[in-house]
User: Fold this.
Amino acid sequence: MTSVESAPTKERWAFQWKELFEEVITSGLCTGCAGCVISCPHDVIGYNHEQGGYKPFHLEDALGLDNCVHGEKGCTSCTRACPRFRAWEPQANEHLFARDREPDEVAGIYSDIMLCRASDDMVHRMGQDGGLVSAILIWAMAEGYIDGALTSYLEGGEGSWRAKPGVATNRDEVLAGAGSRYTYSANTLAIDEARERGLSRLALVGMSCQSSVPPTMWSRKIGKIGKPIIFNIGLLCSKTFDDAIFEELFEAKYGLAREEMVKMNIKGVFQIWMRNGDFHEINLKECHAWTREGCNHCPDFAAEHADISTGGIGKDNDWTLTIVRTELGREILERMIADGSVVARPGDSDPGAIALMRKLAEKSRSRWPQWANPVVRVGLPEPKAKKAPARS
Ligand SMILES: Cc1cc2nc3c(=O)[nH]c(=O)nc-3n(C[C@H](O)[C@H](O)[C@H](O)COP(=O)(O)OP(=O)(O)OC[C@H]3O[C@@H](n4cnc5c(N)ncnc54)[C@H](O)[C@@H]3O)c2cc1C
Ligand code: SF4
Ligand code: SF4
Assistant:
């Protein structure tokens, strides 16, 4: 068989919170993407935003915390929305690309890789890498593709470094959220605010785990909730950190106060720029103990189900590595290049970046447990056989 074997999709979908709780939430597969929370038509799934949390929980305990009255009556929305439940990967692939990925497509299915940067100096400066994500949002609003974006902001403003979900509807709001925070922000949760503000054509900006939410919902025919998200921008990601890393590592060991940090990035090391101009690099191995629990088994580095996935790997700091996956992603990017909103060069101009993307995609996939759905690990090199013990 050449392509990844898909699980049968014709089974009657009768899975509810009970199965989600057992197979995803308590098994360690849950990323905290909040797809289940926003999909629940009965509003009985809450979300723990606290440090060490980032997990959904059931708000009614009529049947215990591991079962749902509405689920027992036939509601299946939460499992339909979950991009870690059962055959989520082949189902989302089939929906988006009308095929599953081939084994060597470890970074997901794509049609092109480019390096891009915003032409507008301010957008470029405020962006994390090339400012492409912000440029796309501003352009797509002006051109009427979208009327808002589910994105991320800083709770309590600059210097807090606590990421929180929010909605952007214009250039100023987009730029207020530009840049990367390395703590988790379930941007999907901003959909309630978007609805309250009367928005109906949304872009989702999200980590890889979040960008699989809409295609998973669509493939499992969830209905109304998946409709407003029409454009999906993914951020390449190998992990996010618990908020405690600021106090317990950066401050306690290196004396770096979070309110004095002005920018951070991860490029093989954790890079931190301070207000007084100082620059610090902290070994990622040291940061490992603060990895958010939901990331430990995450197999998706390259945001494989986004329309466009974006990352910062590459030899030049101020360009965004841009993976074009869908027709919509291609259309938007081509129009932006044509009208000069974005400067682009071929991904081949930095072959090291593409090789590194592939390596990191394999590394993330290898975190997916052997006991979980095996299709996700397809394409990984066979584990090396252990040497037989030497005979005495
Ligand atoms: C937690 C995290 C980990 C990442 N890890 C990698 C990596 O390992 N390798 C790699 O190549 N790239 C990684 N990226 C992607 C990279 O940092 C840039 O986001 C990407 O290259 C786009 O840059 P830009 O200048 O085009 O985006 P910008 O124009 O700066 O826009 C960035 C967008 O991301 C949103 N955002 C920022 N922080 C968060 C957050 N915590 N959660 C959700 N949304 C957020 C912003 O609100 C904004 O809309 C990571 C990003 C994040 C947030
Ligand atoms: S992975 Fe996302 S959708 Fe699935 S249970 Fe966790 S928070 Fe819910
Ligand atoms: S590694 Fe990134 S994409 Fe994966 S669960 Fe963590 S935050 Fe989400």
